[in-house]
Amino acid sequence: MKDMGEADVILGIRIKRSNNGITMTQSHYIEKVLKKFNHYNCSPVSTPLDPSIRLMPNSGDSVSQLEYSKVIGCLMYAMISTRPDIAYVVDKLSRFTSNPSAQHWQAVNRLLKYLKGTMHFGLCYSGFPSVIEGYSDASWINNKEDHSSTSGWTFLLGGGAISWASKKQTCITDSTMESEFVALAAAGKEAEWLRNLIYEIPLWPKPISPISIRCDSAATLAKAYSQVYNGKSRHLGVRHSMIRELIMHGVISVEFVRTQQNLADHLTKELCRDLVHKAAVGMGLKST
Hints:
The structure is a single chain. Helix content is about 40%, strand content about 20%. By secondary structure, it is α+β, with helices and mostly antiparallel strands.
């Protein structure tokens, strides 16, 4: 084992240090991706996905399926490393990898144009606040092809996002409250994992306070703290028991937040330019 000094680049992620904290950026990686797919000289756009477009499965022949898979793979690595602002779009586009259409390619081209304009964005960590806080959200039946919903959650520490996800729900829900509850359960699992991780860090102060998860559904909040589940859906009953156990054991606490302040909102749906920028700033993304 050899001490090579402070880390500069790890797995394509560049680490910058300053008096204001630490910044993680992939500007050099995104630049390579843009050059690889001939978008380095394109005109940038302000949003990763056009809110007026509804992406549907391709009913005809696929268009450059292999090339589509390559670009999705490259974008996915940026998304899971330092770019939570493109998580929803990459998740949406990755569903059509087996049979992409011209419409899907247009959406990919728009995403590359968005990355062109935000190439120098990086996750900034100032060290405050020094507690983990989470946000959970869901968009009910926003996938018209199979009537599924989309879950989104994110956790922040030290002023920047440390964990995030945008995923299609595997079960069909009957209401907005149910879809929000499924998303909350997924966020609860991640919160439990993060709490177990920081518990093993010797320098982390003990005892560890419950991780706050904020959602914008008052009905979901009431259901989470309800002692009895009186529904008929078994999959929701299991999730209710899990959430109740996490709350009772002090792993998480669930709080209400207005939709305008919910940082997981952009992980479940397309948003306009101002809301995209507000969500990016809220998760610690800044131009470096």
